Amino acid sequence: MAKRKVAIITDSTTGLPEAWLRENQIHVIPLNVHWSGQTLLDNVDITVDEFYTRLQSAKELPTTSQPSAGAFLQLFQEIAETAESIVCILISGDLSGTVASAHAGRDLFDSQIPVEIVDTRSASLGEAIIVTAAARAAALGKDHKEVAAIAEAVSNHLRVLFVVDTLEYLHKGGRIGGAKRLVGSVLAVKPILQLRDGKVEPLASVRTKRKAVDAMLQTVREETMGAPALHICVGHAAAREEGEQLAQRICEELRPKELLFNELSPVIGTHTGPGTLGVAFFDAAFLPEIA
User: Fold this and answer.
1) How much is the pTM?
2) Residue 21, domain CATH
3) Do 203 and 125 reside in the same domain of the chain?
4) pLDDT at residue 176 in the model
């Protein structure tokens, strides 16, 4: 049996649907959720529904951690039997130690087959868009260096915006970045946040969540004016109805070429909290082969 030219690995924070992952032969390495003395594999030992239901009444908030170098090594060894090369597309190294673990695992792997590691400087929705673009490139027969270069190119053009109900989760989880200065501000304010260079930064503050979502969508409109090949991912954390409404507005107003709809994984939900809504987007016109 012929080996695949390129195998793609991503992590569990993308929130990409299981059916799509199977269809595109994407390997997923789960991050860890630590909760009340248990270590649970993200989206494996605990589903999104179970996580957000439990979070509502939890007295103790969970914490998270990256996969081990050994977990990456084991996955690399398994994939080496069926593929000629590997491209790892992973959550921002400023938000997680996952990229560092992948590099350590590759060192142990001793280059049995080529392994490219891409720090997306993004997470969740943004990472999902990057992975889908890389999957299209691999399906076109691109080699591992070309697939990794396309993932990097999308990362460089990607925007990720999100609205949280509260900064409590980002603050307690230590992932708050430049938005730290908003902590302790007027409680009624709903911040619009962004991922910039892999870190959480503030974009604006609005009085209500509805106005914050409207302002977030207006930013998308302004930044995608005339985009001929717009790709967007809409995501939510235990806020499906709001997420579906946002996705519908985007479809009607912006008519993207591709619209993904995800629910934030338990690891991401640990840091954003329930009620979060987000959008990730880029114009693929500069990559006509995968646009």
Assistant:
1) 0.92
2) 3.40.50.10170
3) no
4) 44
Residue with token string 């590759």: 106
For residue 85, what are the contacts with CB-CB under 8 A and spacing of at least 6? 5, 6, 7, 113, 114, 115, 116, 143, 144
* Distance in Å from the first CA to the final CA of the chain: 31
Which residue, among 76, 77, 97, 80, has the nearest Cα to 88 in the 3D structure? 76
| Structure tokens belonging to residue 203 | 């974009």
CB-neighbour burial class of residue 194 (10 A; exposed 0-12, middle 13-18, buried 19+): buried
- What is the arrangement of strands in the sheet containing 7-11, beginning at the earlier edge strand? 26-29, 7-11, 86-90, 115-119
Question: What domain count does the chain have?
Answer: 2
Q: Which of 157, 184, 217 is the last residue of a domain?
A: 157
My answer on whether 152 and 164 are in the same domain is no
Residue 222 and residue 140 share a domain: no
* Each residue's pLDDT tens digit, 125-135: 999 999 999 99
